[in-house]
């Protein structure tokens, strides 16, 4: 069930990327021959239909598996996490019980800071680790921004970090960790 959800989610994400590519071509359709513009429009409609079919398959899968549906509804109660993000988290996090603690889950998602040092004197500002699931990290970015602005717990946490002089993107990374 989790594997199927993961495949459906990743297929949907890939199709959305393709739709963006096709829509970029359609922005300049006035300059294209009519046949080419029509082909791009047909392709866009086809991709949109496939995305909708996959969304319906995901909804059916959630309805069929009680535990998945419960976890999905639980994720939706978190301010900042919507339907798309909840599905992404369910699809990309294998078994939540396999992680000992939240730090291990954050490391799996690749939302832990990576300190950069060179010998004893050169210190670069910390960045998000690129180890871990790129797809999960990508799915958490916008929910973290929304939570930073609308979730009272994460808002106060982010304000504290700002007062300590943390850079804005470091604060977003911390909000991503907090959401997990």
Structure in words:
With 180 residues, the protein is mainly α. It has a domain at 96-180. The protein has 8 helices and 2 strands; from the N terminus they run αααααββααα. The chain has a two-stranded antiparallel ribbon. A hairpin with a 3-residue loop joins strand 1 and strand 2 (122-128). Helix 2 packs across helix 3, helix 3 crosses helix 4 (83-92) and helix 6 packs across helix 7. The longest helix is centred in the N-terminal third of the chain and has 31 residues, at 34-64. The radius of gyration is 20 Å and the shape is globular. The chain starts with a helix and ends with a helix. The mean pLDDT is 90. This is IS110 family transposase. It comes from Wolbachia pipientis. Residues 37-71 form a coiled coil. GO terms for molecular function: DNA binding; transposase activity. Residues 73-157 form the Transposase IS116/IS110/IS902 C-terminal domain.
Average pLDDT, rounded to a whole number, is: 90
Order of helices and strands: HHHHHEEHHH
Number of helices: 8
Q: Quick one: how many beta strands?
A: 2
Please report the distance between the alpha carbons of the first and last residues.
21 Å
Overall 3D geometry?
globular
Cα gyration radius (Å):
20 Å
Kindly name the structural category: mainly alpha
- Give the helix proportion (percent range): over 70%
Residues in β-strands, percent? 5-15%
The major beta sheet can be summarized as:
2 strands, antiparallel
* Biggest sheet: strand arrangement: 1-2
Uncertain parts:
none
